[in-house]
Automatic annotation (TrEMBL):
<dbReference type="InterPro" id="IPR015424">
    <property type="entry name" value="PyrdxlP-dep_Trfase"/>
</dbReference>
<protein>
    <submittedName>
        <fullName>Alanine--glyoxylate aminotransferase family protein</fullName>
    </submittedName>
</protein>
<keyword id="KW-0032">Aminotransferase</keyword>
<keyword id="KW-0663">Pyridoxal phosphate</keyword>
<dbReference type="InterPro" id="IPR015422">
    <property type="entry name" value="PyrdxlP-dep_Trfase_small"/>
</dbReference>
<dbReference type="Pfam" id="PF00266">
    <property type="entry name" value="Aminotran_5"/>
</dbReference>
<dbReference type="InterPro" id="IPR015421">
    <property type="entry name" value="PyrdxlP-dep_Trfase_major"/>
</dbReference>
<feature type="domain" description="Aminotransferase class V">
    <location>
        <begin position="29"/>
        <end position="337"/>
    </location>
</feature>
<dbReference type="InterPro" id="IPR000192">
    <property type="entry name" value="Aminotrans_V_dom"/>
</dbReference>
<comment type="similarity">
    <text>Belongs to the class-V pyridoxal-phosphate-dependent aminotransferase family.</text>
</comment>
<dbReference type="InterPro" id="IPR024169">
    <property type="entry name" value="SP_NH2Trfase/AEP_transaminase"/>
</dbReference>
<dbReference type="GO" id="GO:0008483">
    <property type="term" value="F:transaminase activity"/>
</dbReference>
<keyword id="KW-0808">Transferase</keyword>
Amino acid sequence: MTLTSFQPPKRLLMGPGPSDVHDRVLAAMGRTTIGHLDPEFIRLMDQIKAHLRAVFFTDNDLTMPISGPATAGQEATIVNLLEPGDKVVVCVNGVFGGRLAEMARRAGAEVTTVDQDWGRAVDPEALRAELKRVGPVKLVAFVHAETSTGALSDGETLAKIAHEAGAMVLMDTVTSLAGVPVRIDDWGIDACYSGTQKCLSCPPGLSPVTFSKRAQDVMNERQAPVQSWFLDLSLLTGYWSGGAQRAYHHTAPVNALYGLHESLVMILEEGLESVWARHRRCHEGLVAGLEAMGLTMAVPAAERVPELNAVRVPEGVDEAGVRRRLLEDHGIEIGAGLGPLAGKIWRIGLMGQSSRPENVARCLAALETVLQ
Ligand code: PLP
């Protein structure tokens, strides 16, 4: 048995997440642990909720981080909003839309899907047609930025179509939040979850969620209790929104929340418009460099997620070998394709702190060397 401390290698994280974590966030997480019911900690929780509202562009009272990866936030939105027999339409254009559909089925909902080619945005007219075909549904769910393919859907338009049909809207912003504009209130999104390890540039393990007043009313009128005790928002809010009466629910990940707080402060200091513009500029630089090398992008220009770039693997090139050499010889992590895109694309992330012009240049130079 080796009893030495683990020393992680130095990497540049340019895959589908996690992204690079700034020293300020790591330093914040290294500060003294205090009790999760300490009045000072409760002050921090209030600030985190306020900062999350600013990043989500919402006034939603029910806005907080769930203790767990983004999958926990995803499951929380589904199991709190849906009851057995509810009708749901899920737009599926990649892995994470597929998971939304599966979670809704497991919650007992009657699910139909709008299936889209992987690598394309969700077609708003296909959603409109499906809603017309199936009649009234409780919820429409979709992924804003499909990390498995790099396709960005038009959240505002999809939400509008869902609302016209009387449905609530659930949007996944795991890869989109703080990378491209996300405007929860302006777009009328009723429920949304994200993750800390992408453009928020924190370590993985927390999932910010936000719910509209309408969604809260629906949850308050449930016939049956939520089948998950841990993710039941009516119990969780006793801790996150209980004011002076805040009560123990679970032991919050205190130091992870210090990290999230610091990363939100950094994003708000820079300003969201500037953060979005930085992601856009880095994406344009990367695409120009890749195309100059003769590589091609897998997603049409108008439908690309700037922070997740899907690049076609040229014929005859060893897809996994290239990623291995980037990691071993250059310390750069990029991602592979998933599902039907496995072996066909690389996924180059430019998320949060990783989205810097110097990283674009370093990645392009390394890729050119490896492909020679
Ligand atoms: N949704 C999307 C769009 C994602 O990209 C991911 C993870 O990559 C998830 C959900 C699940 O996040 P996590 O792995 O943190 O549970």
